[in-house]
Write a structure and sequence with these properties.
Helix content: over 70%
Shape: elongated
Strand content: under 5%
Largest sheet: none
Distance between the termini: 30 Å
Number of helices: 3
Order of helices and strands: HHH
Number of strands: 0
Oligomer: single chain
């Protein structure tokens, strides 16, 4: 449950990371997006993404360290499973809409 709960939080940095990629592609002339989205430049996206990932790591890392100690899984199994559970809500709920 912890992994999916953190996955719900992880959706926000992942969505903004995808939007940042799209803004960079627009800047390079590879994609088209609404110009009002990038009125302030692409740098705003990078700052926002960095802050969102920092907040996520500050919440997720301590919780995962505590939960990891309470399980019998090896470190490799724990972190692999955690990564999959973090990305699962994004892949199911947000990614299809972003790929349109």
């Amino acid at each position: 449950m912890l992994g999916l709960g953190l996955g719900w939080l992880c959706r926000y940095p992942l969505v903004w990371t995808c939007l940042t990629g799209r803004a960079v592609a627009w800047q390079a002339g590879w994609a088209s997006i609404d110009p009002t989205l990038v009125d302030d430049g692409v740098a705003v996206f990078f700052v926002l993404v960095a802050v969102l990932w920092a907040l996520f790591v500050l919440v997720a890392a301590p919780l995962n360290v505590l939960a990891r100690r309470a399980t019998s899984l090896s470190g490799r199994q724990w972190w692999g499973t955690s990564a999959v559970l973090w990305v699962a809500p994004f892949a199911v709920l947000d990614l299809p809409g972003l790929l349109r």
